[in-house]
Amino acid sequence: MVLLSLWLIAAALVQVRTSADGQAGNEEMVQIDSPLKRKKEYELVTPVSTNREGHYLSHILSASHKKRSTRDVSSNSEQLFFNITAFGRDFHLRLKPNTQLIAPGAVVEWHETSPVPGNTSSPVNDHQPGSAPERIWKTEPLQTNCAYVGDIMDIPGTSVAINNCDGLAGMIKSDDDEYFIEPLERGKQMEEEKGRIHIVYKRSAVEQAPVDMSRDFYDRGGHLDWA
Q1: Where is the signal peptide (predicted)?
Q2: 7 lies in some domain
């Protein structure tokens, strides 16, 4: 599972480019109004769900979306397809479940240091003598139905690892570079029908100093009405 921080967003001026031909995933491009603009290392995009041929199905991306339609899943239930347009390229992702990443029945545990003198009945894990014991205060099942791997269709030698529990988050390795993608905002699964903005950046951008552009970000109507 790839969880990427959002500190990589630079001071941006969103320029929305819409086209009447309805080509999937091409509804929004972004230019960065900063020194990084010249390097073309960041773009904001709105990914879409497509069929195998790349035809638009919907803007719904997250596996947990309550309105996820059966048409968003291909005839082969083991595959998903998404289209992402960034850096002047169309990335048509072909994905299948990553069954080897997480074992069935896996859980997430939250621990806290909690000395409990004289209380031997507490669920304490004390693995190191002399150290403060840890108490498990929360446990919940780990989602295993939203980790996918795959490739970019029609481009040999590419690889993709994506998690769609909350938008699309992961890595795209193309024939010329490596890219990371993640939602601009977390927890917006129920607001995806009109499109959800994601940030795409190159691996080389990770080495850049972080820049906070949140005060200068303006969304100038980056959603298309797919009739």
Answers
A1: 1-22
A2: no
Q: If you write DSSP's letter for every residue of 187-201 in order, what string do you get?
A: S-GGG-TT---EEEE
Residue 114 in tokens: 């909690």
pTM score, whole prediction: 0.58
Element (DSSP H or E) covering residue 83: strand 80-86
Query: Is there a single domain that holds both residue 68 and residue 17?
Result: yes
Which CA distances in Å does 225 have to 42, 53, 95, 193?
A: 25, 21, 26, 10
Residue 60 per-residue DSSP state: -
CA-based nearest residue to 68, from 58, 82, 79: 58
What local confidence, expressed as pLDDT, does residue 139 receive? 74
Query: What gap in Å lies between CA 6 and CA 213, rounded to an integer?
Result: 10
Residue pair 62/193 in contact by the 8 Å Cβ criterion: no
Measured CA distances, 201 to 11, 48, 61, 131 (Å): 14, 18, 19, 42
Positions in the chain short of pLDDT 50: 1-39, 69-76, 121-127, 209, 211-227
Same domain, yes or no: 117 and 174? no
Q: Which of 163, 135, 139, 137 shows the shortest CA–CA distance to 149?
A: 163
28 in a structural domain: yes
| Tokens 């529990």, located at residue | 165
| Cβ neighbours of 47 (radius 10 Å) | 29
Is residue 31 located within the same domain as residue 43? yes
What residues are paired with 171 via a beta bridge?
161, 180
Structural domain including 56 reads: 12-104+142-216
Q: Provide the β-strand partners of residue 160.
A: 150, 172
